[in-house]
């Protein structure tokens, strides 16, 4: 597999399904999920506190916990990957999720109330990041074997000329050919 390109997706609404594109013959690798901010924008927080008494704590300004869920193309159950909880310092999730077919991401809340009846609760936007992997055109095993054989052939050819050299002596190689010796040791004179 080889790295193809960066992937990023913003999940901003609770309950909305996000389906990232996965190119043919590729895997989507998700490496991180992170909240974009720990506190709501000032206008949302001010609006939130106009309806309350002035004896509110700092923690009331912090976003509420939100769970990242995933559901595969042929799977009926939704799986919770993790919960981001800025109020308790959990602002990112290191991940290693690999998908080769369609997948759906959603954000869920503790009360699963998607119609926002409680206007005083704010949920963060979540960013998913990762990359796409694509299949190599050539078979990597065949290429590795060919490179090893070329190395062995060149090594055997060079051993005839350098019988009196120390086996551990570092040599400078270029495209499988001996082009010199490192500066640490000088080549013995004959």
From TrEMBL:
Biased composition (Acidic residues): 133-148, 160-170
Parts forming coiled coils: none
Chain segments carrying region Disordered: 133-190
Every Nucleoplasmin-like domain range: 6-133
InterPro entries, alphabetized: NPL
Name of this protein: Nucleoplasmin-like domain containing protein, putative
């Amino acid at each position: 597999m080889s790295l193809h390109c960066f992937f990023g997706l913003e999940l901003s609404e609770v309950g909305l399904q996000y389906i990232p594109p996965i190119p043919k013959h590729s895997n989507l690798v998700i490496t991180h999920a992170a909240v974009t901010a720990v506190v709501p924008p000032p206008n949302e927080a001010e609006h939130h506190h106009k309806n309350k008494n002035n004896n509110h704590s700092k923690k009331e300004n912090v976003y509420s916990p939100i769970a990242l869920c995933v559901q595969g193309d042929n799977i009926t159950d939704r799986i919770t990957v993790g919960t981001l909880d800025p109020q308790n310092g959990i602002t990112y999730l290191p991940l290693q999720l690999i998908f080769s077919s369609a997948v759906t991401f959603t954000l869920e809340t503790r009360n699963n109330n998607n119609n926002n009846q409680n206007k005083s609760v704010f949920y963060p936007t979540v960013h998913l990041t990762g990359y796409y992997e694509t299949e190599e055109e050539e078979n990597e095993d065949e290429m590795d074997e060919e490179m090893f054989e070329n190395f062995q052939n060149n090594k055997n050819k060079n051993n005839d000329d350098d019988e009196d050299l120390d086996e551990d002596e570092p040599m400078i190689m270029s495209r499988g050919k001996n082009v010199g010796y490192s500066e640490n040791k000088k080549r013995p004179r004959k």
